[in-house]
Amino acid sequence: MEAAVEDVRLHKSPYKTAAKKFNVPRITLKYKVEGKHPIDRKMGPPAVLSRTEEKTIVDWIFEMARAGFPVTMKEVVFSVQRLLTELKRPNPFKDNCPGKSWMKGFMKRNPGISVRMSQNLTRSRAVISKEQILNWFKEVDTFLDHTQQKYVLQDPRRIFNTDETAFFLIRRVVVLAQKGDKTVYQQVNPDEKECLTVLITGSASGAIHPPTILFKYKIIPQEIAQNFLPEWGLGKTDSGWMTCEAFFEFIADIFHPWLKKESIPLPVILFVDGHASHLSLQVSQFCEKNGIILIALYPNATHLLQPMDVAVFRTLKEHWKKRVHEWRISNLEAPILKKKDFPKLLKEVIDTTLNATIFENGFRKYGLFPWHPEIVTVPLNNEHLHN
């Protein structure tokens, strides 16, 4: 339409000729040339989001890519859904969740965004080289230089790593039985068949953030809420695994208040893996506003860069299995570990297993503090690689 208007005004083309040339309605073209209708007037129903709001999403997509968090369409949809819910804005979407047609229109309105297939690193292909690790450190340096926040790397109190792992309520163990018995059964309660997701967070100075436990419920049962540790984080999701919303609640309602309570100077750096469950526009906006710098670890290299993955989880889970076995032996009259008992038992294991030195050594070993890219050791074969 703009080209047709320009053709009429500058080149004196007849309305009929210009309309046919640029495939636009002749009467509409006439009204726009005469100023009766604005040239940039949009046809069809009004957009759900304003241009400013869409630009905010576009800028977020680009900024996340620079920080190592490639944004998926699912994460954009979730972010828009949460935004519309917060704004309480009327819209044609079911449960405020935009569909494929909105996403298609969003991409069309913002041609600077292109769809790319992310590179999934499998066990057979994920041969992480020293060069890739060094490049990741350089990218983090560049990112922090760009935001003028590189000084944060000098203070161990302000460098954090968080990651989630699964704890089973029961594990098969080696037991003693009468000679000749072919099968030995272990009593299992439905509770025990599940695993619980636990988010562990710590700093390079050795500070241990109270864990957050995710339960697979829509509403937390009263017996769990009543027996839960007041200083720990309590979350729920439909799957029991981490989601965008659960991670936002962890950042906004648990991690940030703890930083303020412990008088940790802001900003802080929080190293996380680049999994989609950590990402949403709301998380990014909250972190930017409240001095939390999210940095994604190099994909499929958490075993080389993440203190939680080896230094903490491996030790913690070894002691957890032993403690659960001891608990069952000492509770033979009712040897069923229920979900409501899980937090207190896990706290016993954490209190007797984890200490500041473990966290300090983990950050040091993986070059995160002191910031030392060359110290990271990369295996020469795939035997040490895992997803």
Word description of this protein:
The protein folds into three domains: 1-34; 51-109, no CATH class; 130-375, Ribonuclease H-like superfamily/Ribonuclease H (Nucleotidyltransferase, domain 5). The chain contains 15 helices and six strands. The longest helix has 24 residues, at 307-330. It is elongated, with a radius of gyration of 27 Å. It has 387 residues and is of the alpha/beta class. Strands 4-3-2-1-5-6 form a six-stranded mixed beta sheet, sandwiched between helices.
At a glance:
By secondary structure, the chain is an alpha/beta fold. The chain has helices spanning 2-11, 15-22, 26-33, 51-66, 73-87, 100-109, 130-146, 190-193, 222-227, 244-261, 281-289, 302-305, 307-330, 342-353, 356-365, and strands at residues 159-168, 195-203, 208-216, 233-237, 268-272, 292-296.
Features of the shown structure:
CenT-Element_Derived, 11% strand, alpha/beta, HTH CENPB-type domain-containing protein, HTH_CenpB_DNA-bd_dom, Nucleotidyltransferase, domain 5, 3 domains, DNA binding, 387 residues, 44% helix, DNA-binding
